[in-house]
Amino acid sequence: AVLLEQQGGIIMTGGANFPNAKPGAKTPAERGAKAYYSDVSFLNLGQGCTTPQTKVVGELPAPIGYAAFAAYGNSMVIAGGCNDNGHVATVTCTELGAEGASTSMWPELPVTVAYPAFAVVGSKLYVMGGQEKTDSVTALSRCFVLDMAVPQEGWKEIARMPEARMLAAAGVVNGRIFVMGGCSLHP
Question: Rounded to whole angstroms, how far apart are CA atoms 162 and 167?
Fold first, then answer.
């Protein structure tokens, strides 16, 4: 989910959960199958004192979870992630307009990646680390950047992180990106 300041609300999409999990589930059998989602919803925050309502405004081309994402103008950019078919390299741009959400495909990431750290500096989306495939036994240290102002120029690979990480958090301070936490994988 990202805040779209010009629209006065939050656009959200994708995600995953275990809708059939038994209360207190501890094993995969008790948890049941994981479900991935493709609905695009909008939460209007500009409704004064009334309780904000979430409204479904569109749908992604495919369900997705565990992706990098960023707000850009009236849009949400979603890069990579995974679903029932495995990890993906797809990048979508979902724009919120008066008639709802419309989604377009942007240049794919150079590799499939889920669980990456990500950050935005100006118009550039940085995707760092993650896991390349569902059966990968190591995390990624590779980093990529896409200028969302000119997406047709595609992704560029930049310097790798000193350590391979997935599920890490990233933040920006004074134009510098900091990647923290996460975990690594080992065979």
Answer: 16
What 8-state DSSP symbol labels residue 67?
Answer: -
Question: Maximum distance among all alpha carbons in the chain?
Answer: 54
Does residue 157 contact residue 143 with C-beta atoms inside 8 Å?
Answer: yes
Pair of tokens at residue 129:
């680390």
Q: Which two tokens stand for residue 122?
A: 């100006």
Instruction: Tell the residue number behind the tokens 């979508």, with chain if given.
Output: 92
How large is the average pLDDT for residues 133-162? 97
Share of the chain above pLDDT 70, in %: 96
**2-6, 22-26, 44-48: which has the minimum mean pLDDT?**
2-6
3-state DSSP assignment of residue 120:
strand
Show the beta-strand stretches assigned E in the chain: 2-4, 9-13, 16-17, 35-36, 39-44, 54-59, 68-72, 75-79, 82-83, 86-87, 91-97, 100-106, 117-121, 124-128, 143-147, 156-158, 169-173, 176-180
Rounded CA-CA distance 74/174 in Å is: 24
Write b or e for each residue in 37-67: b if 16 or more Cβ atoms lie within 10 A of its Cβ, otherwise e.
bbbbbbbeeeeeeeeeeeeebbbbeebbbbb
Whole-prediction pTM value?
Answer: 0.90
